[in-house]
Design brief:
The structure is a homodimer of 589-residue chains. Chain A is an alpha/beta fold and 589 residues long. Chain A contains 24 helices and 16 strands. Chain A has 3 domains: 3-253, 3-Layer(aba) Sandwich (Rossmann fold); 279-439, 3-Layer(aba) Sandwich (Rossmann fold); 463-588, Rossmann fold, CATH 3.40.50. In chain A, α4 packs across α11, α15 packs parallel to α17 and α20 packs across α24. In chain A, 39% of the residues lie in helices and 15% in strands. At the A-B interface, α7, α8, α9, α10 and α15 of A face α7, α8, α9, α10 and α15 of B. Chains A, B: Homodimer. Chains A, B: Its cofactor is Mg(2+). Chains A, B: It is an enzyme of class 2 (transferase). Chains A, B: Its EC number is 2.2.1.7.
Chain lengths: 589, 589
């Protein structure tokens, strides 16, 4: 086995060319083997094996700089830079993160996991190199859907002005997470069909030099093409055609399904029983898709909008086909998704945009300047906003409440159970009071409360679930079950607590707070999000001039990485025992 | 005079073609006349007079939809849609806003003032039209630098998939606010030079149909070109060449200086004495540019980065030339600016990015995912973050504290005077503890405190300026003078207040707060920003479990428009008398 003896890129360069196909096969086998056990980005990584080998044979990192866009396709890069054991030895699976990680290796330049940043980052590296009067190659590797994000365009557009060494490898595997969308991808198809010769060429139009390589799995050809560009004195694009899932039939046959895989049987590709990564997500996805399909049948104005992750809102390929023009995937283009939805609403449609909290960050100004400034009736379903969402620092989803909490006129709802979620979603579609966002529950899986209290107007106020005294618990959204457990535990200590479902994540119910202050000495806020700028802080201000003690529980403003959610909560004092003890102490103060 | 008799676009369509040059001249004269008195976007509006007349002769708004990107070039549109008096009658100057405004007219579809949104909004309008089975034309008018924003690319990229009527007019006046940057603008130049025939064509490369019109001031030619596209069944780009400042020599001769004009003498174009819109801004700009030039001379790593508004950081054309490669204007591309700065820092440079608060919103995810996740040593100078910044709803700058307050590891400093600002800027360039943002003061103009207390480490804590008891005033940044006035007034009422310069806009000094709580019964926070998610709220949480009353003063989470800043503050209770009265009442509570 070659891979076991590769401890740095120098070892890759020392191998004879004849050994490389075997090395690629070993890497491919390690990708399939490790992701079959712990899950991961199987398809994208299988596509970039040979390209990564060639990059490390032609360029000498860390002196030369390689920036992998999104960086979920860096498994081969990690294996070739001293981290192979984490993919070969089942006992060490998961020892490295799934993304580029400077704390793991000097060959990883940036922590990154959102798309479309690589060219801008590489432009900065190149400019710093030129300022310092140094000489080395700077390479951005972009693909896998990342080109449709506006930042990638800004990067390419500015790269054309650089006037010095920059190599942009477009790893064209024909896919985003879901199918590619947009005119640029048609242009890539045209370029593939003409072996790069088509006169229409988006890269050349921006003033960039351009080369094409058809077989992105031919290491010798890749090496030759890259070697030719090494030391270039101007920015140049190398467009490489690869196959998502290459070399593993189940993945190659279903690129969307295998973009990110959960544990599977290597022989058949079948998902292992009980291996669905986020069963709650899937369940919420299904009911979302089903409810929206119902709405679409009776209301032609309803449109589901999505940015390359249709599955989060339950839009399987089959549902997409049934929805027709009432389902729109704009590709990886979150800014466009929000402004487009604003235009849809202004034109009389009722858009429902489903998006991960971490990616909604990319449309902050469109939320503020387009959606909210125009009070457009759009519903935004915010997924993964929880300590129990993706536990990678690059994809944390629990910064949403401060983000949306400074948007004028936006109603941000936090349902506590699946029934309330669906009712809020239907309510939002008919709501005429401006945009509504809904924080889809995550923390406790699918919580069912068939007897939840419907509201005629969810924008109006909070709901008291249990009347008590002394301590009032404001348990936001998916932390309601936690609030219930705390209330039960307090009852066991002789304190009958009031339990509130605030419903609104960013707007205190001043009337109710006034009533609570009169009968309670301690107010406790519980939220599945960061404290800084969050729900609890807003309550603390609303209560700041009152004679009451407020205890706020939430998450840290920090890039926690690959954490255990329960341990994270415990480190923030968010346990039933911890909250009860604090509340009792505050009562006695 | 024709213009006085135009009360709607139908009147424009009823005019004989022979009258149109005179109408254009009248509009042009009204633009120059009104902006010479109240200021405004002189150059951009002069460029789009004939185009606007032609648009309203060919399309029938409000049935047809026209979306003007940025919308600062809609003066002619306003004049032709019933609002001419606001430009003709000096007594009514300023009666209408400087941007597209749906509350003024059914011909204005969106409130908007940030760039690059029009194509996405128009795609949404077109999709809504198609869903409803209606027929009308949807037109996006984009230019004046707006094409370099990534959202414009996302819009164009998605437009190519629309498959129905959409007309994109590229109003190419050869300028952004400052000179254009990026490969796309080189392509526009190539297309202009070849009358649209160049084989390199960024629009065609994206799959869009394309036409070129050289003389963007020839109304007949514009009408003919637009009429040909009316009712098109697919997206098409009409590239029109215009001249920024057309027809007014001072503006045409200095497009950057006349992008936005302050009151001027019509005869000579000279700025009227005392007419500089933001003297404090100019002063802060000058000292920023001068200090950065000093740094650059001694430290080749220092780079000033900017996104199309170099003047805010004092970089006049002359300074730009002197700075050479140490000054970079990336054009209107704020996302790129932040990621690029991150790359620069990773490559060993020390970037200082100057940007308006309202435009920094466009780079929210790049701040979070690139800059902060990578703890990159970058300084961001945040301009206009104040109730006393631009008072247009589209450009409010006082939402910055919640935005930056949820960024992990970012130090956000709020200097109280020009000396402290400069010291913090120098400190930030040498700071190795991750990114630093600095909130450039606005509210009270240039405040000088030569005896300000330097800190060796501004990230560490707050500063007590006056020791008192009972009431502690936490007066953030440019509200320090307000805090001083409140402290003086309290002294007059027999209360010796403590006055604190918090320095840090998003991080409570827990140690100092603990000390304050011991000796004060009332804590007052004063901030020139929104309360929701702001500085006061953070203090309120830090103090929530203590036996103290906290009063928070700040701005509303609302799209206030064309407001008087002092009146806005008064409406929020922010007057010396108001705060004093509240504090005294709280003491007696």
């Amino acid at each position: 086995m070659y891979l076991e003896h590769v401890s740095s890129p120098a070892d890759v360069r020392a191998l004879p060319a004849s050994a490389l196909p075997a090395l690629a096969a070993e890497i491919r086998s390690a990708i399939v083997g490790s992701t079959s056990v712990i899950g991961g980005h199987t398809g994208s990584n299988l596509a970039s094996v040979e390209l990564t080998i060639a990059l490390h044979r032609v360029f000498e990192t860390p002196r030369d700089k390689i920036v992998f866009d999104v960086s979920h396709q860096t498994y081969a890069h990690k294996m070739l830079t001293g981290r192979a054991a984490a993919f070969l030895d089942p006992a060490r699976y998961g020892e490295v993160s799934g993304f580029s990680n400077p704390s793991e290796s000097e060959h990883d330049l940036f922590a990154m996991g959102h798309t479309s940043t690589s060219v801008s980052l590489a432009c900065g590296l190149a400019a710093a190199r030129d300022l310092a009067g140094e000489k080395y190659d700077v390479v951005a590797v972009i693909g896998d859907g990342s080109l449709s994000g506006g930042l990638a365009f800004e990067g390419l557009d500015n790269a054309a002005e650089l006037g010095s060494n920059l190599i942009i490898v477009v790893n064209d595997n024909e896919w985003s997470i879901a199918p590619n969308h947009g005119g640029l991808y048609r242009n890539l198809a045209e370029l593939r069909a003409t072996h790069g010769e088509a006169p229409r060429n988006a890269f050349r139009a921006l003033g960039l030099d351009y080369r094409y390589l058809e077989d992105g799995h031919d290491i010798a050809a890749l090496e030759a093409a890259l070697a030719e560009l090494r030391g270039t004195d101007h920015p140049v694009v190398l467009h490489v055609h690869t196959e998502k899932g290459h070399g593993y039939a189940p993945a190659a046959g279903n690129p969307e399904g295998w973009h990110h895989a959960v544990p599977f049987d290597v022989e058949t590709g079948a998902v292992l029983p009980g291996a669905a990564a986020h069963p709650a997500d899937e369940n919420y996805a299904n009911v979302t898709g089903a409810l929206l399909m119902d709405w679409m049948r009776t209301d032609p104005r309803v449109v589901a909008v999505n940015a390359a992750t249709p599955y989060i809102m339950g839009f399987t390929p089959e549902l997409r086909a049934r929805a027709g023009a009432q389902f729109v995937d704009v590709g990886i283009a979150e800014e466009h998704a929000v402004s487009y939805a604003t235009g849809l609403a202004r034109g009389g449609a009722r858009p429902v945009l489903g998006i991960y909290a971490t990616f909604l960050q990319r449309a902050y100004d469109q939320l503020w300047h387009d959606l909210c400034l125009n009070a457009a009736p759009v519903t935004i379903l915010v997924f993964g906003a929880s300590a129990f969402g993706t536990p990678d620092a690059t994809h944390l989803g629990f910064f949403d409440i401060p983000m949306l909490g400074s948007m004028p006129g936006l109603t941000y709802l936090a349902p506590t159970c699946i029934e309330e979620y669906l009712d809020m979603l239907s309510w939002s579609i008919e709501h005429e009071g401006g945009p509504v966002a809904i924080r889809v529950p995550v923390a406790e899986g699918v919580v069912s409360r068939p007897d939840f209290a419907r509201a005629d107007d969810y924008a109006r106020g909070w709901e008291v679930l249990r009347e008590g005294s002394d301590v009032a618990l404001l348990a936001l959204g998916d932390f309601l079950p936690l609030g219930e457990r705390v209330a039960d535990a307090l009852a066991g200590r002789g304190v009958s607590a009031t339990l509130v479902n605030p419903r609104l994540a960013t707007t205190p119910d001043e009337t109710l707070l006034g009533r609570l202050v009169a009968r309670h000495r301690v107010i406790v806020t519980l939220e599945d999000g960061i404290l800084d700028g969050g729900f609890g802080e807003r309550c603390a201000r609303a209560l700041a001039a009152d004679d009451v003690r407020t205890l706020c529980y939430g998450l840290p403003r920090a890039f926690v990485d690959r954490y255990d959610p329960d341990a994270l909560l415990a480190s923030c004092g968010i346990t039933v025992e911890g909250v009860v003890a604090d509340a009792l102490a505050a009562l006695e103060h």
